[in-house]
Design a protein that fits this description.
The chain has nine helices and twelve strands. It is α+β, with helices and mostly antiparallel strands. It has two domains: 112 residues, Aminopeptidase (3-Layer(aba) Sandwich); 176 residues, Gcn5-related N-acetyltransferase (GNAT) (Aminopeptidase, 3-Layer(aba) Sandwich). Its EC number is 2.3.-.-.
Length: 332
């Protein structure tokens, strides 16, 4: 077996790297998720202030056996390397995964990183999979669990009207604002703060991880990166009478994977909870997303198993759980 470094410059090589990753996901997941080719290649090519991405592939002659994706965080979590290892089903149990893990570990140690972290999808009931068995056998510990939930779109307009009617009058004192790819200047300071609060509020179990600290500059960088990747985003925020950005939600996807859409963050600030604001921002945001949807798609989202209120909101909308996503870490 031979190790190849993937830099994203060689387009043909990167296409094989991405195809292997996506093939594994399609084989192992009933509802596959993951970035498209352009989305991935942009991450490898960019020189961002907060993230560096590295790829490895293990090959046997001209046969690609497996791949590893390494995220190096450069602002927060500079003690962690996030690693994803995927081995093609036809080439498992030949040592390719162990080979890749050893290579990733050596790189992490050489850079002074002290924690390897990975995320694995597994069975809905137990969270178990070939990936979790591999991680447990090599010294990783399960630190956090989320439900992977899906919802097939489009939702009927009548159903949206019905859901909206059920929460009518519960937050009339709030007004809604919506935007697409660029956060309006008038809201960017408050939105940066809300994103930081989201990082602090979201349940993280026993994970050794620092929340991201957002600034207007970091938002603009993320927006630039998202556009370069061919991604799109719909945001709806609720504004309290005092002008405070009280809640927000974001949904989107990418042109390269039109059948895969994502419900990203939803936050209701603690002092504004109990007014159905979660539903109050999700429903109009879903309307915005569907207004441009001309094909069937699956909307994916993830929630910590202990986040009962948000799971209930998603269930009310029509999401159903299909898998567990578990987070594992190993101290080096």
């Amino acid at each position: 077996m031979e190790l190849i470094e993937i830099d994203g410059v060689d387009a043909a090589q990167f296409a094989r790297f991405h195809a292997l990753r996506d093939d594994v996901r399609r084989h192992d997941q009933e509802f596959p998720v993951g970035l498209g080719l352009t989305e991935c290649q942009v991450l490898f090519a960019r020189q961002d202030a907060d993230l560096r991405v590295e790829g490895l592939a293990v090959v046997d002659g001209d046969t690609w056996l497996g791949m590893a994706w390494l995220d190096w965080w450069l602002q927060e979590n500079t003690h962690i390397v996030e690693v994803e290892i995927a081995v093609h089903p036809a080439h498992r149990r030949r040592g390719a995964g162990t080979f890749l893990l050893k290579a990733a570990t050596a790189r992490a140690k050489a850079a002074g990183r002290t924690v390897l972290s990975t995320t694995i999808l597994g069975d809905y009931e137990t969270g178990d999979s070939a990936g979790t068995a591999f991680a447990a056998a090599r010294g990783f510990s399960r630190k956090h669990t989320e439900y992977h939930q899906v919802f097939e779109l489009p939702m009927a307009a009548e159903r949206l009207d019905e859901l909206e009617a059920r929460i009518a009058g519960q937050h009339d004192e709030y007004r809604l604002v919506q935007w697409r790819e660029h956060t309006p200047d008038e809201w960017i300071e408050q939105f940066a703060d809300a994103l930081s609060v989201m990082g602090e509020e979201v349940p993280m179990g026993e994970l050794d991880r620092e929340p991201m600290r957002w600034t207007p500059e970091r938002i603009r960088q993320a927006e630039e990166r998202r556009l370069e990747q061919g991604r799109f985003c719909h945001t709806t925020a609720a504004i309290a009478p005092d002008g405070t950005l009280a809640a927000y939600t974001q949904m989107g996807g990418a042109a390269g994977n039109p059948e895969r859409l994502y419900q990203w963050d939803t936050l209701v600030r603690p002092e504004h909870r109990g007014r159905r604001l979660g539903m109050g921002v999700k429903i109009p945001n879903l309307r915005s997303l569907q207004a441009e949807l001309d094909h069937p798609a699956v909307l994916h989202t993830w929630n910590a198993v202990e986040n009962g209120p948000m799971i209930a909101v998603n269930k009310y909308l029509g999401f159903r759980p299909v898998a567990q996503r578990t987070n594992w870490q190993q101290t080096l």
